[in-house]
Amino acid sequence: MKSVFFSRFFILLPWVLIVIIMIDIDSKRTIRAPAAGRTGRAQRAVRTGAPGIGGTQNQSALPIIYAITPTYSRPVQKAELTRLSHAFRQVPRFHWIVVEDSTARTELVARFLARCGVPYTHLHVFTPRRFKRAGMPRATEQRNAALTWLRQHRSRRDSGVVFFADDDNTYSLELFEEMRSTRGVSIWPVGFVGGRAYERPLVSGGKVVGWYTGWRPDRPFATDMAVQLSPENADPCGFAVNLQVILTNPRAQFKRRGSQPGMQESDFLKQITKVTDLEPKANNCTRNGDVPMTVQLPAAVQLLTLYSLIFTLKVYFSGFA
Fold it and tell me: How would you classify this enzyme at the top EC level (predicted)?
């Protein structure tokens, strides 16, 4: 009798935990009405609005955060852009620059951006096929197109912060408030990259003195901090740049030629700053602000579900032994 009771208990327990976790996730979601107003143009579309949560006092004085997101057509494209938009629409004074790897703006992305509730600019530039081979850096043309747009449409009077938000990453809302005070180039830790739970700059006395990283810590700027596991797929998402630094360095760009796989971030940052001038964020880079629990919980649910199925089948078939 006891063995039957315990077997049923352990079969039900994982499913109960799954339900509790999913209820907890759902209770933390917020619902926001989309912002109104947009304009469209031939090669780009710009949307204006006023997203954000919390108080509205003095928000107009905040520097605008410009998030550059390269994207390309694939089955999960809209799902990943949707995840990003749910975070971005909660950030005040935010502008999303989405750059498609295509010969023209696609209807899917155009419709999505028109309804996402985030102020945006929609660009497109096609990556030549010779640069799409395995082992070559991705999204170089798209990031450079976004930098060009900023230099053409923003002036020395504008205040802002630029960062690179690839569409397969997840961000904590705290990160945006951290980066907003960037004076030159700021940097922070990132999780689930390079086969490690996290990677981060090593900081002493408020200065970056080294790198805790799984791949080539000897790089001048070991900032391939993203949810990728190979150097050729490294993404420059662990740093932010003051808008004026971008404008005062008009030739700074991500290099296609002369840049080794995984070195684009270092090559770009060498054009605009020095390691000693980096501004460590997230409590001197001791907090992993780029991957919060919101990305870990779904993974936990998947593992728990797999465990539950295996255990249930094991108990079921053991009854026939």
Answer: transferase
